[in-house]
Write a structure and sequence with these properties.
Domain Plastocyanin-like: 11-124, 138-289, 391-525
CATH superfamily of the largest domain: Cupredoxins -  blue copper proteins
CATH architecture of the largest domain: Sandwich
Radius of gyration: 22 Å
Family: Belongs to the multicopper oxidase family.
Organism: Castanea mollissima (Chinese chestnut)
Subcellular location: Secreted, Extracellular space, Apoplast
Oligomer: single chain
GO molecular function: copper ion binding; hydroquinone:oxygen oxidoreductase activity
Bound molecules: CU-O-CU linkage, copper (II) ion
Structural class: mainly beta
Strand order of the largest sheet: 10-9-12-17-14-15
Amino acid sequence: GKVHYREFVLKEANFTRLCETKSMLVVNDSFPGPVIRVTKGDTVYVNVQNQGNYGLTIHWHGVHQPRNSWSDGPEYITQCPIEPKSNFTYEIIFSDEEGTLWWHAHSDWTRHSVHGAIVILPKEETGYPFLQPDGEEILVFGSWYKGDVNKEVNEDLETGNVTPQSNAYTINGQPGDLCPCSNESTYRWQVEHGKTYLLRLVSAVMNVEIYFAIAQHNLTVVGMSGSYVKPILTDVVMISPGQTMDVLVTANQPLGRYYMAARQYDSIRQGVKNYDKENVTAILEYKGNYTPSVSPSFPNNLPTYADFNPAIEFMKRIRSLANKDHPINVPQNITTRMYVTASENNVLVDLGGENVTALASSLNNISWVNPTTDVLLAYYRNISGIYTADFPDNPPSFFNFTEDDSPDDTTLSVQGTKVRMLNYNEEVEIVFQGTNLLDVSMDHPMHLHGYSFYVIGSGYGVFDIETDPKGYNFDDPPKLNTVTLPKNGWVAIRFKASNPGVWLWHCHYERHLSWGMSSVFIVKNGGTPETSIREPPPYLPPCKDSFTS
Ligand code: C2O
Ligand code: CU
């Protein structure tokens, strides 16, 4: 593949949205940030210069980075932060990914302003597995906060409070003309009648799923998470934080202007509150001579925030291509089986000498705590005392997870830096189980770094080990890097641990990540240089404690 060089300059800049101006950290003065465009198999060096006020890292979401955890990015997992006035050059190695992915900051909540799309074109000799589109467009969905969200979050985390809610959603940085002071700046996409476009969707939204639709236009989903899927013809898609989607749209409607709109799908508060004011819009605008109507038409099929079924129906339809050119290879000799509960619960924290309950999230009742030296360096250099290798394969107790009968010992999670070791090429099955601890349940978009996994099954209620595996799909399961664990349900995934390194896995709701809904796989080397973690780059951002100086 080709080699590309890019400069990412992180700097504070002023942005005006919703009638107010604020300064926030962005890359190369733009929000969303620059697009990385490559062909399958290329390598990109991104030199990140931090001219901001605090340390941070950048993650290349969905790029498998074979043997190269060093450039994966999550703070205190594979590196320490790039401090202000310093820089770090990431080496992003593309291998089998094709389609749309994205990059984002992986420190605090900075990803709300530091993110952008990654476009991976097919090799010229192979092309797309569908008719070559006439054009392309990228839509990045984001969350807008009027205040300094990092500051607010850090205070909330310290005191155990709920984290801030966004004030609007954005499409390519703009809330759209249904929001105050946003008329002039609404994002517009111009299309030519009769042409078919490849629409690349990225959800950089922080804490909720969204529904997206275009008035009077059909959507054909052809890719997700950087791999192709069997075409799904639909009028609405549901997209979780962290997910990316490739969608074909044909401009076949009467010349005019049409709203492209998104609205949150809130699996937690169904039936409680009206979120309809939080519609975000952009405008699809036909080129040509016509008198546009006063207001573009709105996609009246866009489900409401409390509408469960369109999300379920959409998720059920995702299948991989599974053909000769895009074969699948689902692991069948499972040697590691894990059953992992994802919960919102509590921890006890010491607040000025007093023990108080704080909000927390956990996997198998363990709330992840970041170390001060990154896990990768500690593993690679055999530094002890940074993490323990005892992440459990099962929850501490079994009960009816999705009912409101949580035993007391599960409502408090245990804090720790517990990783799970995997042997090279081990075949892993994980069943994620949603819970209703403290009477709170919701979807969780579960993401694994360094891999894509096959989603072989999902369902509602408590996973039944006798009957549910009978329904597993081994024919055409989708291959994703981020899967939506449905509210009060389960999802089963499989992958082969063929990528040695240190890989974070977590819920992609930012508040759950910061409350500890994450853990780490350390995949051991395979015994030859070609199956081992690469040499570290010559310069790594130093960690603040003495081990690494
Ligand atoms: Cu999109 Cu851990 O990341
Ligand atoms: Cu979650």
